[in-house]
Amino acid sequence: MKRIGILGGTFDPPHLGHMIMAEASREQMKLDEVWFIPSHLPPHKQAAEVGALDRLKMVKQAVKSNQRFYVNDLELNREGKSYTIDTIQQLRLENPETEFYFIIGGDMVEYLPNWHRIDELVKLVQFVGVKRPGFEWDHQYDVHEVDIPLIEISSSEIRLRLAEQKTIRYLVPETVYEYIKEHRLYEA
Ligand SMILES: Nc1ncnc2c1ncn2[C@@H]1O[C@H](COP(=O)(O)OP(=O)(O)OP(=O)(O)O)[C@@H](O)[C@H]1O
Ligand SMILES: O=C(O)c1ccc[n+]([C@@H]2O[C@H](COP(=O)([O-])O)[C@@H](O)[C@H]2O)c1
């Protein structure tokens, strides 16, 4: 069985927190690959500031130097909210010889009881959690814990910094930094 990690996210924009959690999960969970899946419409928060195509392109830029990281755009081709249960069902159908591990931050671990059809979802996928500053660790569901240094970086903080014309260099991969500058994203 192939072991694939899934890092779903809004990626508005992708940042080094995402890269560190993906790499630590790959190593500690002995994953063959990590697939980054940008959501079309995030299920639990407001629509992204930047359109789906730019977010997809930024994620492609972010992963391109790592041969075990891939981008999958299946959620961008689906109407309505990007519920994880729909994504996992599709992935399992398309990849029968594969075990999927869904990687989430501490905020999402805390929120798991509210996920759409969570009791079905936990039977279809294993969750991998990484701690995140400011969030409790909820053990209501089985979550494999992966250790990373606590990282304060968030996409919302990056959007705020850009709106205030502050630097975001070294908070995002260099290729993402260049993409944001070139396309003048998140400017007020
Ligand atoms: N610094 C971090 N530490 C741990 N997990 C993180 C971190 N940043 C993001 N994640 C996790 O990565 C996944 C995708 O996150 P997302 O793309 O929504 O970024 P975000 O930084 O949480 O965005 P926003 O600030 O806009 O809410 C989620 O499971 C989230 O919990
Ligand atoms: O399916 C759900 O109900 C659900 C609720 C919250 C989050 N998720 C997924 O968790 C991932 C991280 O979410 P977000 O909004 O923090 O980017 C992303 O792939 C979402 O689709 C999924």
UniProtKB/TrEMBL annotation:
Pfam families: CTP_transf_like (PF01467). Keywords: ATP-binding, NAD, Nucleotide-binding, Nucleotidyltransferase, Pyridine nucleotide biosynthesis, Transferase. Residues 6-160 form the Cytidyltransferase-like domain. Gene3D superfamilies: HUPs. One of its GO terms (molecular function) is nicotinate-nucleotide adenylyltransferase activity. Pathway: Cofactor biosynthesis; NAD(+) biosynthesis; deamido-NAD(+) from nicotinate D-ribonucleotide: step 1/1. It is an enzyme of class 2 (transferase). It comes from the Bacteria. Its EC number is 2.7.7.18. It catalyses: nicotinate beta-D-ribonucleotide + ATP + H(+) = deamido-NAD(+) + diphosphate. PANTHER family: NICOTINATE-NUCLEOTIDE ADENYLYLTRANSFERASE-RELATED, PHOSPHOPANTETHEINE ADENYLYLTRANSFERASE. Catalyzes the reversible adenylation of nicotinate mononucleotide (NaMN) to nicotinic acid adenine dinucleotide (NaAD). Belongs to the NadD family. HAMAP family: NaMN_adenylyltr (MF_00244). NCBIfam families: cyt_tran_rel (TIGR00125), nicotinate (nicotinamide) nucleotide adenylyltransferase (TIGR00482), PRK00071.1-3 (NF000840), PRK00071.1-4 (NF000841). This is Probable nicotinate-nucleotide adenylyltransferase. It comes from Halobacillus salinarum.
